C-alpha cells in the first residue's frame, strides 16, 4: 500500500516573529489536500492573508470542489494591491487521491517540482485566466511509486541574493540540488531540513524573506511494532512474542525482561553493544530476529525527550544510542503498533529507584500522544 509522506520546514524573515507563508495539510490518504500560500509582505499582515487563502482552498477542496472552481472563487475573494498590481497572496494547491492522481493549481509561486525515477519532470500545465485578472497554472497528472513533489516559496529561490549569489539560488539550481540529494532512503523530513539549513546559510542566518519548503514522497507505507514489557499473565508470553515476531515492518523491543523473554522464545542469545551507551541511555542489545533491542524506561524517557524537542535528523544521524535510533525509526514510520506488557518489574518499586522508572505506562501514553500529534497512526494493545 502506498502513502504520501509530507513534511514542511520554514524560516521567518529576519526581524519577524511570525511567518508570512502558510502551509495547510488536510484530508487523508484517500483525499489529501496540500496548500502553500505566500502573503504579500511579511509578519502578521502577510500571515493573515496567507492563512485566509489556505483555509479557503483547503475547505473547498475537502468539500469536493474542483481546482478550477477554487481558482474562480479566489479571484473574486482575494484583493489586488493597487500600488504593486499583484495579488495579496499567492498559492500552490494540490489534491492527491489514494491512486496517486494529482490535481494542481499554481498562482505566482515558484513552480512545483516533480521528480520521478530520479529525473525532473515537467508538469502538463495549462494557463487558465480567471476573472480577467488571475492567471492560474492548472494541471492533472499521476504519481508513480517513489515520486517526489516539492513546493517552495520564493524565499527559497531568492536565498543568497545580493550575498552569496547575485541572482539568488534560483529555481533551476534548487531543483537540481534536490534531485541530487535524494536517495532511496531519504525522508521528507531530511530533505526539508537540508534545504532550510542551506537557505539559512545562504542568507547568512538573516533571511531576507519568509522561506518555506513542503516535501511529499509517494512511497510504500512503513510500519513499526514495539514490544514494551512482558505480559502480566505469563501464559500469554508465547502469544505476544509470536504476534511481535510475525508483525510486518520494523520490530523494536524495549526492556531487559522483554529481551530475555524474546531470547528464550527464539532460543537465541543477546549480545550487548557496549559502545552504544551514551547521553545517559544504556547500551543496546543485539538479538537475531529483532531490528532493535534497547533497555526500557530510561531509553523510552530519552525517546520522549527527543520527540518533545523535535530533534533534527542532523542531530540524530550519527548517534548510536538506543533513544536516538528509536526516534530515527519512528520518523520513517507511518503506522506504529505498541504491544504493551503490564507486568510490573519489582526492581522498579524500590524506594531508591529514580521516580521516572515507575512511569513506564505514562511514558507510553506520552509517546502515543507525540506520535499522533505528528500525524502517525498509533495503536496500543495491552497484555
Question: What would you say this structure looks like, in words?
Answer:
The chain has 383 residues and is of the alpha+beta class. It has two domains: 2-220, PPM-type phosphatase domain (Phosphatase 2c, domain 1), CATH 3.60.40; 223-382, no CATH class. The protein is 32% helix and 29% strand. The chain contains eleven helices and 18 strands. It has a six-stranded antiparallel sheet with strand order 2-3-4-5-9-8. A five-stranded antiparallel sheet has the order 1-11-10-6-7. A five-stranded parallel sheet has the order 16-13-12-17-18, with helices on both faces. β6 and β7 (119-121) form a beta hairpin. α1 (43-62) packs antiparallel against α2 (67-77), α8 (297-308) packs across α10 and α8 (297-308) packs parallel to α11 (360-373). The longest helix is centred in the N-terminal third of the chain and has 20 residues, at 43-62. It is elongated, with a radius of gyration of 24 Å. It starts with a strand and ends with a strand.
Amino acid at each position: 500500500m502506498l502513502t504520501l509522506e509530507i513534511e514542511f520546514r520554514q524560516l521567518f524573515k529576519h526581524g519577524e516573529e511570525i511567518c508570512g507563508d502558510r502551509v495547510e495539510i488536510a484530508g487523508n490518504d484517500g483525499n489529501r489536500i496540500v496548500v502553500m500560500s505566500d502573503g504579500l509582505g511579511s509578519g502578521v499582515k502577510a500571515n493573515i492573508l496567507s492563512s485566509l487563502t489556505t483555509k479557503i482552498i483547503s475547505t473547498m477542496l475537502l468539500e469536493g470542489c474542483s481546482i478550477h472552481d477554487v481558482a474562480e472563487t479566489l479571484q473574486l475573494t482575494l484583493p489586488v494591491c493597487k500600488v504593486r498590481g499583484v495579488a495579496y497572496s499567492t498559492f500552490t494547491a494540490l489534491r492527491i487521491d489514494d491512486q496517486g492522481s494529482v490535481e494542481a493549481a499554481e498562482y505566482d509561486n515558484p513552480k512545483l517540482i516533480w521528480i520521478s525515477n530520479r529525473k525532473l519532470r515537467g508538469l502538463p500545465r495549462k494557463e487558465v485566466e480567471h476573472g480577467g485578472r488571475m492567471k492560474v497554472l492548472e494541471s492533472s497528472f499521476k504519481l508513480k511509486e517513489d515520486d517526489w513533489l516539492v513546493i517552495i516559496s520564493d524565499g527559497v529561490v531568492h536565498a543568497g541574493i545580493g550575498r552569496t549569489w547575485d541572482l539568488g539560488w534560483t529555481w533551476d539550481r534548487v531543483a537540481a540540488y534536490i534531485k541530487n540529494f535524494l536517495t532511496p532512503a531519504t525522508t521528507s523530513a531530511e530533505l526539508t531540513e537540508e534545504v532550510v539549513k542551506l537557505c539559512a546559510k545562504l542568507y547568512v542566518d538573516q533571511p531576507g524573506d519568509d522561506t518555506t519548503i513542503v516535501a511529499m514522497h509517494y512511497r510504500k507505507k512503513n510500519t513499526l511494532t514495539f514490544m514494551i514489557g512482558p505480559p502480566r499473565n505469563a501464559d500469554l508470553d508465547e502469544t505476544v512474542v509470536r504476534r511481535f515476531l510475525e508483525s510486518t515492518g520494523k520490530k523494536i523491543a524495549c526492556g531487559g525482561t522483554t529481551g530475555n523473554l524474546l531470547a528464550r522464545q527464539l532460543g537465541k542469545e543477546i549480545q550487548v553493544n557496549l559502545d552504544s551507551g551514551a547521553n545517559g541511555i544504556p547500551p543496546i542489545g543485539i538479538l537475531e530476529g529483532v531490528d532493535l533491542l534497547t533497555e526500557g524506561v530510561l531509553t523510552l524517557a530519552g525517546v520522549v525527550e527527543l520527540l518533545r524537542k523535535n530533534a533534527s535528523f542532523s542531530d540524530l544521524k550519527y548517534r548510536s544510542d538506543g533513544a536516538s535510533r528509536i526516534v530515527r525509526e519512528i520518523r520513517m514510520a507511518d503506522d506504529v503498533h505498541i504491544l504493551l506488557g503490564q507486568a510490573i518489574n519489582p526492581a522498579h518499586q524500590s524506594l531508591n529507584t529514580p521516580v521516572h522508572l515507575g512511569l513506564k505506562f505514562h511514558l507510553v501514553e506520552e509517546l502515543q500522544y507525540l506520535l499522533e500529534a505528528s500525524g502517525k497512526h498509533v495503536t496500543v494493545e495491552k497484555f
